[in-house]
């Protein structure tokens, strides 16, 4: 992707700030950064089996980013997390799950993440065409009054039967149910590794108290960074996290433990520095960070997706897991958006900050 293309989407001052920022708080030399042999270098000394390495290899050697160490993943579980109507009404073709798989294939993604039901219908047709990541737990939004809890929707064994290369799960760190979710997911990840599958954890924070004085700290760098660290601790091979939008959650809410250096030495208010703090908490980048693409904003989607990709890549992250911005628009536009994001990771002129 040429810088001339990016100038069509960003004000010049913002683009230059994103492309030329240097991270001084945490130099890139202190991190383990994505590359063609990243997972071999990181996991060969570990307890991950050859089968797990093969599964990771299937993901990172597929699609347009094959062999780069970066990943572009299409996630479609919003039909459970938000309701099928709200997710697919903007483009009803995705009520048919085959179109989800077609979008991931045509879009050149490394893998597709979706539900047991979606993948079960097409496992024999597509499991050999694109790596499957089965989302094994969900927050169903049909119970009334509304509750927020991730519960298992199937077994790790069934994900393996579907031909999955990996399982994905969510933990709502900070929620009253998080202790149970940590135990459930840790056990599921242990079984997944035993069967030869890789593991990806959605490390989200969730607690009403994380909104204080009108400011939302769910995406604070210190809270999301610690969520990533907990995800690495239960042996996630990759962590998924929202881009940080602020900092100082521990101090503002007055809980947990923190240190002044977290805020005045290890990061700044710059979005790349905030994201780098997330990378640091994934064992200094050994557990790759994939940031989420967020909800669809219509005309702003491409710009926001490109911005997220630049921040993630320059911070030392591993890629984007982008769904609604791609599937809540016409099919060809979704393909083009996915590939535009991938072009950021393919562009050698966009370097690690």
Automatic annotation (TrEMBL):
Name of a matching Pfam family: DeoC
Annotated GO biological process: glycolytic process
Enzyme class: lyase
GO molecular function: fructose-bisphosphate aldolase activity
Domain of life: Bacteria
The entry's keywords: Lyase, Schiff base
The EC number(s) this enzyme carries: 4.1.2.13
UniProt keyword Lyase, yes or no: yes
Family stated for the protein in its record: Belongs to the DeoC/FbaB aldolase family. FbaB subfamily.
Protein name (record): fructose-bisphosphate aldolase
Source organism phylogeny: Bacteria, Pseudomonadati, Bacteroidota, Chitinophagia, Chitinophagales
